[in-house]
């Protein structure tokens, strides 16, 4: 791995960390596409690498900042965690058996749907 690659990956991590802590996005919306587009990883490898990176210590630092401001509901977070672990297990079992081109298209559709919801459907101010 070259110094340029290392620096680029760190920059992607910084951008994802800032966006994740500011608006709750990062792994799927920033890191996965960047690893595919700029570093030539397959969709599967980018997803697996991102999931490996999003371990407790990374998220905990940002969550503690929100907690200190009274902006964390730990009951909901725990329930989400349980669901996320179960969903992550079964989702990964399915994803690793889907063709890379198909999983990339599914990923793109999910991003488009999220963008459309926030642009046109979200009624919150």
How would you sum up this structure in a few lines?
By secondary structure, the chain is mainly α. Helices cover 82% and strands 0% of the residues. The protein has one domain (3-121).
Question: Mind explaining what this structure looks like?
Answer:
With 125 residues, the protein is an all-alpha fold. It has one domain (3-121). 82% of the residues lie in helices and 0% in strands. The chain has six helices and no strands. Helix 1 packs antiparallel against helix 2 and helix 2 (27-39) packs across helix 3. The termini are far apart.
Characteristics of this structure?
125 residues, mainly alpha, globular, 6 helices
Number of helices: 6
Quote the distance from N terminus to C terminus: 45 Å
Which ranges are low-confidence, i.e. pLDDT below 50, for 5 or more consecutive residues?
none
Share of helical residues: over 70%
Shape descriptor: globular
The proportion of strand residues reads under 5%
Query: Any idea what the radius of gyration is?
Result: 16 Å
Tell me how many strands there are.
0
Q: What's the structural domain tally?
A: 1
Average of pLDDT: 85
Task: Present the secondary structure layout.
Layout lengths: L2 H21 L3 H13 L3 H11 L2 H13 L5 H22 L4 H22 L4
Helix pairs in contact: 1-2, 2-3
């Amino acid at each position: 791995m070259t110094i340029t690659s290392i620096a680029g990956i760190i920059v992607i991590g910084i951008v994802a960390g800032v966006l994740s802590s500011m608006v709750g996005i990062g792994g799927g919306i920033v890191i996965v596409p960047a690893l595919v587009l700029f570093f030539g990883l397959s969709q599967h490898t980018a997803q697996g690498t991102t999931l490996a990176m999003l371990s407790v210590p990374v998220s905990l630092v940002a969550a503690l900042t929100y907690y200190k401001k009274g902006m964390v509901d730990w009951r909901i977070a725990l329930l989400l965690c349980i669901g996320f672990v179960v969903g992550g297990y079964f989702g990964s079992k399915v994803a690793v058996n889907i063709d890379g081109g198909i999983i990339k298209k599914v990923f793109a559709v999910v991003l488009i749907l999220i963008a459309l919801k926030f642009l046109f459907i979200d009624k919150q101010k």
